[in-house]
Amino acid sequence: MKILNLYACLGGNRYKWGDDHEITAVELDPELARLYQERFPNDKVIITDAHQYLLDHYKEFDFIWSSPPCPTHSRANFWASKSKEGRLKCYPDMKLYQEIIFLENWYEGKYCVENVIGYYEPLIPAKKRGRHLYWTNFALVNDLGDREFKLTQTKNEVQELCKFHKIDLSTYKGDQRKDKIARNLVDYEAGKTILDCAMNVIRKSNVKQLELL
């Protein structure tokens, strides 16, 4: 199966997808793209704007996962902006909803768009699982099996998050904060469960098509 992994970061969602699929990962940060490639050498990694890449290449894939940037939607950022005088206020980034609407109306494969639970009610109904919202065109099981990391349990947060997600940020030389990178990763158990749900739907559809023949 051909999979497109947008805003790939370090591939938190992708860790348990295995190597039987043809996976293309898109990441704008060259340093994160480098670490992703080292982690998943069989994947094709492209350094470019994921939002535009989706528009240009969506027809080439059977399954698309998109995790658009979450800061302008997150409750934590909203609360921080309200509590700190002088902190810059900003509009929510509507690329999230642009992609959901586009995929729902133009894409013929299966998709999953992921984001954090926002400080406002989702403008498009979503499936809430754990601390994430998911927009999909297939059914999700209620329990994704995702593990929970307790941020308050450790003083060495980055080190513990790296251990939890099985990642290595020690050589990262980009501009993003390491704790932010590690916090934003989707748990790999949830990533595997969601892909399994999509594949089950695709398999059933293929069987029905064969029966018609």
TrEMBL record:
Catalytic function, reaction form: a 2'-deoxycytidine in DNA + S-adenosyl-L-methionine = a 5-methyl-2'-deoxycytidine in DNA + S-adenosyl-L-homocysteine + H(+)
SUPFAM superfamilies to which the protein is assigned, alphabetical: S-adenosyl-L-methionine-dependent methyltransferases
Keywords: Methyltransferase, Restriction system, Transferase
GO molecular function: DNA (cytosine-5-)-methyltransferase activity
Top-rank taxon, per record: Bacteria
GO terms of biological process kind: DNA restriction-modification system; methylation
Keyword Cell wall biogenesis/degradation in annotation: no
InterPro entries on file: C5_MeTfrase (IPR001525), SAM-dependent_MTases_sf (IPR029063)
Name of the protein this chain belongs to: DNA cytosine methyltransferase
Organism: Christiangramia crocea
